[in-house]
Design a protein that fits this description.
7 strands; globular; alpha+beta; 4 helices
């Protein structure tokens, strides 16, 4: 029952994005029409849906930096769809580094039906032998990405929805417009504790935690 409902929900939210919006002055196409309201409505509805799922296929996770006495809501939490569940016994810490495959994109727009991809390490199967993997410091990322990593286990493959408040805010960054909901597909392959520089010989010979 949940999957058909979600499909209908997402379709209803994204249909307006398929319509072309033009400037009254020069008839040029606006790439992100009504972007702030579109993103706010999309994430709020997704947050409400995920909050009601109890089978573990969806998660709502409050920003890692908030105290326990602060209640989570649609502006300070991420939404996670569990695409594949890993079997690792631990999770990365804020001071750790991770080895991940990921793809980051925006919501669909007038020119990008599947969402503009602004950063990625792989094409096709994220787990293929040829798939690109990259080492990242957990603490160096936007809050939403950092939050997700600290709840992931080795082998997890998640689709993570990040509200703009935990992403690039109202001003955006480079080719990411302000108020953008970020959608990351993230696979966690390994992590290692602080104190081992990325690329060091010790990291190459067994410091990586892979299970």
């Amino acid at each position: 029952m949940k999957k058909p409902y979600l499909a209908i929900l997402l379709f209803a939210l994204l249909v307006p994005l398929a319509l072309t919006s033009c400037s009254e002055e020069d008839n040029t196409v606006e790439e992100f029409p009504d972007w702030e309201n579109t993103n706010n409505a999309y994430f709020t509805n997704l947050y409400d849906y995920a909050s009601g799922v109890t089978d573990g296929s969806w998660k709502v996770i409050k920003n890692f930096s908030l105290n326990d006495n602060i209640e989570g809501n649609a502006t300070n939490s991420i939404v996670v769809e569990v695409l594949e569940a890993g079997t690792g016994s631990g999770c990365p810490m804020y001071t750790d580094s991770v080895l991940v495959s990921y793809r980051g994109r925006l919501l669909p727009s007038t020119s990008y039906a599947d969402g503009y991809v602004f950063s990625e390490t792989y094409e096709g199967d994220y787990n293929a032998a040829t798939a690109g993997r990259t080492a990242l410091n957990v603490a160096d990322l936007v809050d939403g990405f950092t939050t997700a990593l600290q709840y992931m286990h080795i082998g997890d493959y998640w689709r993570v929805y990040i509200p703009y408040q935990l992403g690039y805010g109202s001003t955006g960054s480079d080719n990411i417009p302000g108020y953008s909901t970020l959608v990351f597909d993230i696979a966690l392959h390994a992590y290692y504790r602080a104190g081992t520089p990325v690329g060091s010989r010790s990291a190459e010979t067994g410091v990586w935690i892979t299970e």
